[in-house]
Amino acid sequence: MNLAGQDISLSSDIRHQKSGAHMYSSNFDDTVNISFCAYAVNFMDVRVGQPIDALRMLGANVKLHIRQTKLIPGVPDDQPKILIIQRAFLSKEGWPQTLKSAIKAGWLMVVEYDDYPENPFNAAKRANSLDWERFKMCHAVQASTASLAEAFLEHNPEVGLFENQLFKTPDPVTKPNENIRLFFGALNRKTAWEPLIKTYNKVLKANPSARAVVLHDKEFFGALETDNKIFKPTASYDDYLRTLHSCHICLQPLDDTKFNRYKSDIKFVEAGAGGLAVISSPTVYADSIEHNRTGLIARGPREWEKMLTQLITDKEQRDRLGRNAKNYVIENRMLIQHAHKRLDWYRHLWANRTALNDRIFTLYPQMRP
Predict the structure, then answer these.
(1) pTM over 0.85
(2) Are 360 and 139 in contact (CB under 8 A)?
(3) Are 146 and 161 in contact (CB under 8 A)?
(4) Cα(344)–Cα(304) distance, rounded to whole angstroms?
(5) How confident is the model at residue 291 (pLDDT cuts 50, 70, 90)?
């Protein structure tokens, strides 16, 4: 099995079991042609727009198609041709038709997925799709976390692991001095914040100068028992970052469910880039945040109360954690440091296209043109 292009280190036992955690040499004379078909574009800048910009900077010919599947016309037969299908729920009939058309045209089909497929919010879509078989009925899969990559390896021997990164450092945003701003901005997090809402309200009551800044979640905003709060509706990615980076502290609760364990740490990366002091649940974030150095990990309401109070009242701690988080992001999580690994992997896929096609033809003889 081949777990390639990873941006993070895997444990030695996993590397041994999967026997493929290595990089590939690139032939930079060949332009990599990528038809990127994005079916989930909202809040997906780090998986769609930003990687595309980075790949173009490295010389790839990338065309973006929104909620439709298209191939780039006129590409020479001998140049690498990669069709990326991002977060698609094509029908049970449409998926094999798309794969067969790609093979007939000489393209390799790669599935891009950055969430656990058994998403409780997509049950209806999953019922009308091939569900897990999507990841078998393609040439390769690319994912954003090691846990996702491991899950996809059970269905496809060719998996590329590309962690979420940032394309650029953010422009400086002034943080107001008159109050300490606490940021919360996420979708579908009620099961995470509801057990902590009494704790948040207790801390806000004891610290009336703290101002809550809430993006997206009206229900969370309404549950905060303070008048010192601001609500902002769903915004563009740039507006989201500006709002986030105008704050001092970022709240990142995440309950421990099977679905959540496969999520990435991108919210920590985005907050850290803006120099925020982050306080998070251990699910996902304990693997990225170095406790009391780049952020805080709160395990349960009592720790949330203690640590959040400390962050509100201790400017030195806030500044230290924010500074360390920002340094971590700049040193480790900038996309330009990693984007070349994607091109390495795409060229590897192209060099092995005969074997990749043969695997599909063995499993699905009807895919042969």
Answers:
(1) yes
(2) yes
(3) yes
(4) 43
(5) very high
